[in-house]
Amino acid sequence: MNYYKALRLVTNLRALSVLKTKLIAYKLKRSIIGEVLLMNIKSTEYLISIKNRKGFIASGVMNVDSYDDNEIIAVTRLGFLRIKGEELHIISLNLEEETLEVGGHFISLEYFEDKGTKLRAKSKGILNKLLR
């Protein structure tokens, strides 16, 4: 393998290594011949499980923003999650595994986005364009 082929292979590997998931980074390696080897690919799925409106488990939970007996707001990979109910209590919150387990009587679950975060991101993008 000459120097230029090796350099091209390294460049292709660096460009392809941008693709990764939260749970397991995967590597997509392309050889000079064009064969593709996929290793360790696991898609990231976020699950919510409710048992008889009394038990709730969610994955992809990064933090709990606020909670009381009637409402819990969790920060998830898919946005904010509002859990409404009665006598709600957090059974477990594992930030390493990104899981949340809640007990109580559930009335509703709702995903929403923080409009302030969206607005700050938009203004930051405009500021970056002006500074270029």
TrEMBL record:
This is Sporulation protein YabP. It comes from Desulfonispora thiosulfatigenes DSM 11270. The lineage of its organism: Bacteria, Bacillati, Bacillota, Clostridia, Eubacteriales.
